[in-house]
Design brief:
Blueprint (H helix, E strand, L loop, with lengths): L14 H7 L6 H13 L8 H26 L1 H7 L14 H18 L2 H19 L11 H23 L5 H21 L4 H7 L4 H4 L2 H25 L3 H23 L1 H27 L6
Helix pairs in contact: 2-3, 2-7, 2-13, 3-5, 3-6, 3-7, 4-9, 5-6, 6-7, 7-8, 8-11, 8-13, 11-12, 11-13, 12-13
């Protein structure tokens, strides 16, 4: 055979592919939620800046990056259909390198979490366990359109918020902080359902029962919008109960703007889902920060 026909087999991953594997664009939601937890704790972030910086790095590049590597490894067959140019199915990360990266980052996450004290370490253990439970067999909760998005919403929004507040406060956050973290995590189920639209074909082929697969794009999009809207309506109600009418009004305005964007989304759910994940979700997370400031130094129970 001519040497010109010889195709060398890559043994080491491309550096750019490693960065692509851990998807920096996905780091923002958990880092933002951790920041909301810091704000809601009622403690000066400047007085605890090392913990704040470490928590942001842990929530984004390390834990979220690890979860992306683990998901890509466990999803390599699905990605060969949905996104064949991804680092693993394309061969730019060869062999079992994707698995080794995910495992190494899991150990790094646990080590950094230990530095944040018992609350930070406990939250890191929970986040790592959730990442592997979502992607890996035999659990692989992403096969369920109900449990999968719920677990990701909890891990991306609720758990980092709780962790930021607990680390700065040095203990269990107050009722209002836990309530907001839980409500925004619940609403994030809708965001994660919309995120599943990009993998519709591969999910059908490999038996991943996401809501866009089982319900169809139109019904799944309507459910996602309802979940996001109900969660924020409950946040508005709680802010009014807690005597924060101006903050409640700000969240209500952000919700009304989302409703307008939702109408555009529902006109073409599959085509408009990526657009909404940029426009509508930005309004959603803005409401998170408004709510965090609302409960800062607020005592309700």
């Amino acid at each position: 055979m001519s040497d010109s026909l010889h195709i060398p087999v890559r043994r080491l991953p491309e550096p750019s592919a490693l960065l692509e594997l851990i998807k920096p664009v996905t780091w923002f939601p958990p880092m933002w939620a951790f920041l909301c937890g810091v704000v809601s704790a009622g403690v000066s972030p400047l007085a605890h800046w090392p913990a704040v910086v470490l928590g942001l790095i842990l929530a984004g590049p390390v834990v979220c990056g690890m979860s992306q590597a683990a998901n890509d490894w466990c999803d390599r067959h699905v990605d060969a259909v949905n996104e064949p140019n991804r680092p693993i199915p394309s061969g730019r990360i060869p062999g079992r390198w994707g698995l080794w990266v995910a495992l190494a980052m899991t150990l790094a996450a646990l080590g950094l979490g230990w530095l944040l004290g018992p609350w930070g370490f406990g939250a890191t253990v929970a986040a790592c366990a959730a990442a592997w439970a979502y992607s890996a067999e035999p659990v692989r909760l992403k096969r369920s359109g109900w449990w999968g998005p719920g677990l990701v919403g909890l891990s991306y929004e609720g758990l980092p918020w709780f962790t930021g507040a607990a680390v700065l406060a040095g203990g269990l956050p107050g009722f209002e902080v836990v309530t907001l973290a839980a409500l925004y995590a619940f609403g994030a189920h809708g965001i994660m359902t919309l995120n599943d639209f990009k993998a519709l074909e591969g999910d059908r082929l490999y038996g991943v029962r996401s809501l866009p697969v089982t319900m169809g794009p139109d019904a799944a999009a309507r459910l996602a919008c309802t979940v996001m809207g109900v969660a924020q309506a409950l946040v508005i109600a709680m802010l009014l109960v807690w005597g924060r009418p101006w903050h409640a009004l700000a969240v209500a305005v952000l919700l009304l703007l989302q409703v307008r964007a939702m109408r555009t989304l529902l006109s073409d759910p599959k085509g408009r889902a990526p657009w909404y994940n940029g426009a509508g979700v930005t309004l959603y997370v803005a409401g998170m920060l408004v709510s965090a400031f609302a409960v800062r130094n607020l005592e309700v129970m």
